[in-house]
Amino acid sequence: MGKRLLGTYAILAYLFLHLPLLVLIAFSFNASKYTVWTGWSLDWYRTVFHDAQLAEAAGNSVLIALCSAGISTVIGTLAAYGMWKRKAPVLQSSLYLSLVTPEIVVGISLLVFFQWVFHWLHFQLGAATVIIAHVAFSIAYVVIVVTARLETFDPALEEAAMDLGATPWRAFWRVTLPALRPGIIAACLLALIVSFDDYVITSFVAGVDSETLPMVIYAMARRGVSPAINAISSIIVVLFGVLIMISEKMRAS
């Protein structure tokens, strides 16, 4: 009886979480502009793929996400390795501060910082500032995931490699890094998803020529709910769902 109730509770919890997404995906194929089902249609997907503004925003989002994920993965992996070698629990715990800090606070602080820097260097808000901002909050995710992988790594393997004549760098490159590869890939995918999905922080540090897809979707939603939003949102949900499953599989391997 208890197992049956637990299973029912789990089903209801999953329905609560995912039923709105299923409804969103279903209505992205609705021929009508309204929430009244009138038949199947792919018109809204055609609208998405022929919209120049959405295409430019999607290109900006992909470029920014790839750059920020790559940079944060390199920095975060080295940071996780350094803290694992030096055993810095206080510094490691402080990383969680960036995860619990409200995004609006992070966005404002980054905007103030950029304005102060621009006063001296005469830069402007744009894709570069968005990438820097995304790297700043993505590093914590990478460090946490890679550190979890490091906890399962036996440091004696590195010591054995160095006893056999390998330098510390060669031991890291040939022994430690291959063992960390699944965690690093999972961390990179997570950073990619977080960067692509961000709206609040990006809206503070983006320039007029660096609007991302979440910013454009939000602007479209404010003008009125369009089925094209359902279509692009469905594409993002499916794509990110696949990336999350790959990330989880890599993390657990």
Polypeptide structure, described:
The chain has 253 residues and is mostly helical. Helices cover 81% and strands 0% of the residues. α2 crosses α12, α3 packs across α11 (213-223) and α9 runs antiparallel to α12 (227-252). The radius of gyration is 22 Å and the shape is globular.
Question: Could you list some keywords that capture this structure?
Answer:
single chain, 253 residues, mainly alpha, 12 helices, 81% helix
Overall pLDDT level:
84
Largest sheet: none
> Roughly what fraction of the amino acids lie in strands?
under 5%
Q: Helicity, in percent?
A: over 70%
Helix/strand order, N-terminal first: HHHHHHHHHHHH
Rg result: 22 Å
Structure summary, number of beta strands? 0
Could you give the distance between the termini?
Answer: 34 Å
Low-pLDDT parts are: none
- Secondary structure tally, helices: 12
Structural class comes to mainly alpha
Brief summary:
This protein is mainly α.
Can you lay out the helices and strands and say which pair or pack?
Layout: H1 2-27, H2 43-49, H3 52-86, H4 89-94, H5 96-100, H6 103-121, H7 127-150, H8 155-163, H9 168-197, H10 200-205, H11 213-223, H12 227-252
